[in-house]
């Protein structure tokens, strides 16, 4: 069985892994995200030391250029993350390790991981959404990873924002009160003055969060009609938030469709992304 | 060349056609939508008289059941249209005309028509949206018509609604101020007391309309990243509305992505649906 490499590049850390699947991870390493040069060098060193692999998959924070025909394929593009805009990752890894590389968004990679080994096995049309520092979404429609002009950017949808209930302006540098601007981990921390993890059990916090999450999910459901939505990311670790969000989605849909999209947790937990990157490597 | 039949079932009229494409429509008929029995009988009579055809495609108002494995495949399901909920169309047409039938939503059919002969030729991922009496959307992602648990229902996304600017409650019987509830032709007429066509040139009307349309389009762009969005339907006949809506989408996206989805008019005009139904027939 061929051994693949996977990299999940995140805004705060990179996860690197070598193996064939969740039951066969032969080496893993977590690398803090510092400068592009230092971070990429450490990832290359990991694969030099622990390899060889037949191909590498990379699931990256974005926006990214994943168009195979593009001159800047494999680059992170217009990210607001300081120092990282227009950084080449895919081509650099391919050149230095001399292996085929497949490159996509972190959330499309996670979707692929869950499709292969997790909570989306056998599904044709589903989404993977992460609610963490930011909000991102990817998925599979009609059996194929969601790509288009670029790739999905679920976090930047606009949702209703009742300022009488929540006067917070939102934290998105581009859009203020878009979905990510109102409902991401950074938004929660900025609104309430404490990190999500320190707000456990605060009724007002989680009622509002479930409401905002549900408003975005309704749009995803109305556009894609996914069979299932997997809701991952650190914010979703809050006890009761998933079930409360499901309740809000039902309330908002108000019986309009006869069938309800199943909204549930990913099965691979924090491994969805890097395992998905390994699954992605098989397509390189 | 095989000759196909197409039916576009609308809430106010059905369009029936026989032919091979836009340059070869051998017979067409417009039938007013009355009771299911009478309307279906008239469509059957048209094909009896003008046929034979090798297969029929049906693009229907919805929600519909287009799952091939379902016992109620070919049915309109939970529509609020009086007398039409849970009406079998696809199986009835197949049985009475004894030909293969392909069945999908009106907007997926229109998307397919534009893909085959119109403004979406050669595209892999795009949407067709109609802004008429209601708002509906369909399209193709990764080369395949958008299907999932059921099918897209773009019109029922929630969008921001600033009640200081617009105190209108919306007209959706399920959701009040969803996209369709605020921005459809029926919503315009209910809010301003006159039909859209009689409000030409009224600055407040069309500034608000472009704003609402753009808010929904931003969600579609963030979920699907379409290469192009085709905006059809009667409301879009308002001079300047398309270009104003484009401007609002740009303003709302605020330069977040390097690439902008092309938002333009369908090329087949009011024929997208029935021609798309003919294209759909080829898949029956």
How does this model look, in words?
2 copies of one chain form a homodimer. Chain A has helices spanning 36-50, 90-97, 106-117, 179-183, 185-192, 203-224, 241-253, 272-281; strands at residues 4-9, 13-21, 24-32, 56-60, 75-76, 87-88, 101-105, 126-131, 135-141, 144-145, 228-232, 262-264. In chain A, strands 3-2-1-4-7 form a 5-stranded mixed β-sheet, sandwiched between helices. In chain A, strands 10-9-8-11-12 form a 5-stranded mixed β-sheet. A two-stranded antiparallel sheet of chain A has the order 5-6. The mean pLDDT of chain A is 96. With 284 residues, chain A is α/β, with parallel strands linked by helices. The two termini of chain A are 16 Å apart. The interface between A and B is large, with 50 and 50 residues.
Topology:
Two copies of one chain form a homodimer.
Chain A: E1 4-9, E2 13-21, E3 24-32, H1 36-50, E4 56-60, E5 75-76, E6 87-88, H2 90-97, E7 101-105, H3 106-117, E8 126-131, E9 135-141, E10 144-145, H4 179-183, H5 185-192, H6 203-224, E11 228-232, H7 241-253, E12 262-264, H8 272-281
Parallel strand pairs in A: 1-4, 4-7, 8-11, 11-12
Antiparallel strand pairs in A: 1-2, 2-3, 5-6, 8-9, 9-10
Helix pairs in contact in A: 1-2, 3-8, 6-7
> What average pLDDT do the residues of chain A reach?
96
Could you state the oligomeric state of the chains shown?
A: homodimer
Helix content of chain A: 25-40%
Q: How is the main sheet of chain A built? A: 5 strands, mixed
As laid out across the biggest beta sheet of chain A, the strand order is 3-2-1-4-7
Kindly provide the radius of gyration of chain A, computed on alpha-carbon positions and rounded to a whole number of angstroms.
19 Å
Q: What is the N-to-C order of secondary-structure elements of chain A (H for helix, E for strand)?
A: EEEHEEEHEHEEEHHHEHEH
Secondary structure: number of strands of chain A: 12
- Helix and strand content put the structural class of chain A at alpha/beta
Strand residues, percent of chain A: 15-25%
The coarse silhouette of chain A is: globular
Chains forming the largest contact: A-B, 50 and 50 residues
Q: What is the distance, rounded to the nearest whole angstrom, between the alpha carbons of the first and last residues of chain A?
A: 16 Å
The number of helical segments of chain A is 8
Poorly predicted sequence stretches spanning 5 or more consecutive residues of chain A: none
């Amino acid at each position: 069985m061929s051994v693949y490499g996977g990299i999940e590049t995140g805004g705060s850390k990179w996860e690197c892994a070598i193996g064939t699947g969740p039951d066969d991870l032969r080496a893993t390493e977590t690398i803090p995200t510092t400068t592009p040069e230092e971070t990429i060098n450490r990832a290359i060193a990991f694969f030099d030391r622990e390899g060889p692999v037949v191909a590498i998959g990379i699931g990256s924070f974005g926006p990214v250029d994943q168009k195979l025909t593009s001159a800047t394929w494999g680059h992170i593009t217009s990210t607001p993350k300081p120092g990282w805009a227009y950084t080449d990752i895919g081509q650099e890894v391919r050149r230095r390790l001399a292996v085929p590389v497949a490159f996509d968004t972190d959330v499309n990679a996670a979707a692929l991981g869950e499709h292969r080994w997790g909570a989306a096995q056998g599904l044709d049309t589903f989404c993977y959404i992460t609610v963490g520092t930011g909000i991102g979404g990817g998925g599979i429609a009609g059996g194929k990873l969601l790509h288009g002009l670029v790739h999905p950017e679920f976090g930047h949808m606009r949702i209703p924002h009742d300022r009488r209930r929540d006067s917070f302006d939102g934290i998105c540098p581009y859009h203020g009160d878009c979905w990510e601007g109102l409902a991401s981990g950074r938004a929660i921390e900025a609104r309430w003055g404490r990190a999500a993890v320190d707000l456990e059990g605060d009724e007002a916090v989680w009622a509002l969060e479930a409401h905002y999450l549900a408003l975005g999910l309704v749009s995803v459901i109305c556009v894609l009609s996914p069979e299932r939505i997997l809701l991952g990311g650190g914010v979703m670790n809050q006890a009761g938030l998933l079930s409360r969000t499901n309740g809000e989605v039902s309330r908002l849909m108000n019986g309009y469709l006869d069938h309800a999209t199943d909204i549930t947790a990913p099965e691979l937990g924090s491994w969805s992304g890097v395992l998905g990157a390994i699954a992605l490597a098989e397509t390189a």
